[in-house]
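Handout, section 4.2: multi-component inputs.
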Amino acid sequence: MATTSSFSKGCFVFKANPQKSGRSPRKKTKKSAIVDTNDDLNASSLFAKSDKSSMEIRLDSYKKIWSATKKKSEEIISDSHKQLLHDVKTFVSENAGTGQSSIPTALISLGVNLPDHAAFFSLLDTTLKTNVSPFVAMLNSKECPSLKNMVLKTIQKLTSCDSIDDEVEKDEEDDEDDVIVPIKPRSKVKTFANLATWYSNVVMKTPLIIILQDLESFGTQQLQDFVLLCRENRVRNKLPIQFIMGIATTVALQQQLHHRTSVCLATKSFQSRPSVVLLNHLIEQLFMKSSVLKLGPRLMQLLLDGFLYHDLSLNSFMMRVHLIIMQHYITLPVSSLCCSVSELKNRIKQLNVTDLDLYRQLPSFMKFIEKNRSKISLLTDDKEFRLFLQKSLEALNTYSKNFSLSCRIIHSLSDGMPDALFGKSLREVYVNLLIGGESEDWEQFLRLLNVSSAHELRTRIEAALTTLKECDSSGSLSDFSTSLVLFSEELLRLEESKKSDAVSSPKSQNVFVPQGKKLDKFELKAQLMATAKQVRTTSEFDEVKSEIITWLNSELASRLKSPSTLVFHEIFYAGSQVQSNWDIVPWMRRQVQPVPRVAISKALSNPASYLGCSCCSLTGQETQVLSSMPDLCIVYKLHTECGRLINLYDWMLSFNAIQKKDDEDDNEEIEPIIQARFIRAVAQLQLLGFIQSSKRKTDHVARLTWGV
Amino acid sequence: MDISVNTEDYFLAQSSAVHTSDRTLNRLNNPRLSQEAVDSLMENFDDCHSKEKILLMKEYQQQFLQWFFLLREGFNILVYGLGSKRYLIDEFRTRLLDGKNVIVVNGYFPGLTIKEIFNSLTDGILEHSGGFSSPVEQLEFIEQEFTSSKVEAYIIIHNMDGPSLQFSREQEILCRLAAAPGLHVVASTDHINTPLLWDQRKLSQAKFVYFDCTTFAPYSEEISYENSLLVQQSSTLGLASLVHVFASLTFNAKAIFILIAQRQLENNNDTNYHGFPFHELYSDCRDKMLVNSDLTLRAQLTEFKDHKLLRMRRSADGTEVLHIPLENNQLEEFVQKHQE
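Output:
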């Protein structure tokens, strides 16, 4: 291929080869530009260590699972915006007239997760266009650098829906033919005056809606002018203009909307749901329901950290989920069995002997064999192993279903407890239990249940029952719910009998103060001691309570053990501990928290960590300089010893001193080759951004970093 | 490796006085090596870790298929780490992108403009014959074409943080391009502060998948354009251009320049000296009958300024002062040469 370096240009084009015949050109003008998109076969060699069929299965599963996940997440997100969209729609249609002089404005506060806003606005756009008015202009600050652009864009977008309709009709006429690239018709409508004339000819007198996506990023003055202009036209030309403004933070509002602007607006504010709520919803729907692939504890933690402490963006969350699904199927050879239960049998049948060995190498299976020596025949008997595989994977499936359900039960049982033991939201409960939270939490939970009153206990159990009824459609926990029903009935009976008791003997006995007698301090103390010594008679309620707690401890706790204790969990829980070359967690960590700077610093201060050579390996501190290291590393290490300014000459001398052999005498003569190497290294250090030329002192450079 | 940033260190570094010696490169036998000299010297230089570097390169090349798969799945690739990644990415291009639409952008090329990238896409790949009234329109056209039609193209950007791309606007545009379904970007970055260029929105558009490709390869191509980098070279150029321009000056103009230069040399140890005050220069010049009015002097000075031989600024007390932006030793050299 031709060279890509030149002193006169920085851009080089390599055109695709002209297409083979047999493919109908979509567009006359650029036949040759179409590339064959069916490159999947090329990707096949990606899947190392497996034959073709396994590769195809995995690729297929990846595609299926990702598209399902994607579809579901989109549904969830659009569902969660439903209420807000409805409210905005109602607001817009209620204020359709031009009666009032101020412009009806919907302020929608959407939170700081800017990348997610696009999805909302596109939904809003479709909703408004289908339900309220076809005249919607959606603007963002990037396309409106000046007022002129802003006005042009607005008008162009408001009027464009007309021409689209025309085009569609035209297209229908000459259907099937090659469509020539539609060149945007240059609209004649360019000013507000034109717009008014245009609007007077429009049949549907629906409002003109202008959406400003990111209010904060528009210039204050520009915004003010624009608003005044729109108001002027609303009043004089009777144009039913309305605004919808998206805001990220409320603070910006006062700065952005000057008093002169805001008096022209009749605002109403709307609030979207915080993205954390959406995230909880997503995790509940995507990973707690019957999804095939689940996130292992380490990856779940990683993704949550990325979301909660970094960007709060659902968009990037989903992008990471995409990467995880992809990586799981590509990197893990055993992922071909990561499928729904119905497919399992067939897939296990298809496995060949080498595949089976891969499954035998899984750490969880090895551990299992170590513990159950009697099952050692599994290592050799393929038929038995296949059966075992099927049984274990089915058990795993039931386990994860029960696990999510148990999480829900725990959530409703512990709801409102002090300290929010397992977390406030269901997502927190799930993640905490998945990670295998401390057993202290569990004990504390039981203790708190133990001190609760009969009524409280019953409410909790009933809440758990409701959750069970809602979620357990398959009835896999039916015996569990039967016991719960029994307990709740028992408690109810107790409560009622107590009530009737209370009615029959309204005078409750006071143990401490005998009536009619005044006690002094010592007497009271003695009395109290005596009561404490008395064995408390266990009531019927206490018995039931302890029964409930023992039952919970045995039934629920067993269902809540961490997935990593189960055999073959690696297949369904992405990012579990596996052989190091199958482990995707370090790779994912790099994607969630990319650290280019650390990579550079590490390479510079400890080159052996990348090069793997023995000559440069550090024996002491990181600041150690060895003459065998690459020039750039030596120069870097020398520069970290300096302050703000570095004397080039002295720097070069130290570089020379390191390069010199010990036996050479101590003269300061610098060979040209050393000088050239030094110059190169310094130039590269500047490219990396560690130093900068400085005019403060002759032959000095400024250091741009500090510390080591 | 753990890099903990200690904010205290910053203030320590800034508050301490700078203690460096006053020695300059003039103490060397040959203080100013030219670019050619460096190149010819380095040509024969044999690097000790070549074997390890080849191994590293081989290791990274095994990721190529993964890169390609990710690109096809709608992600874009960002390669970081110490060492030039030009060769690695070029290898990727020749191996996997052969026969596809590819645009190679050298971000380190100082004359690169975003327009050039646009034109490569519209003229080179899309073969669009019409013109565009504005870059915005061109960008929208590109986005639309690569979204709606089946056309695909790969954009390779060496040094996405290069001198002509390291601005918010340029990055914004590159990320928008990367977001188009038909455009796939493979980019490399080197500067340690590059991540500061991207905000949430840009990152979510770009959908980068990061790869650490520390190659230790020399940045020979990348630094060949940066003449300011070779401190040695840039000042030689300054002196050379001064001699050149000076030769073409009139006698009076030469004398005026020498006056300023001498005054600057006399005061070279005075840190409070900011430049030759204009009114003093005027009276000096009148005394020597070099100029006859304020205006003629200004005309002369403007010529110096146009050739960047002179800098004019206002001092603290509001007077205009004149300063020659050259190192003192070079200025001295120059004045001596002139007097000879």
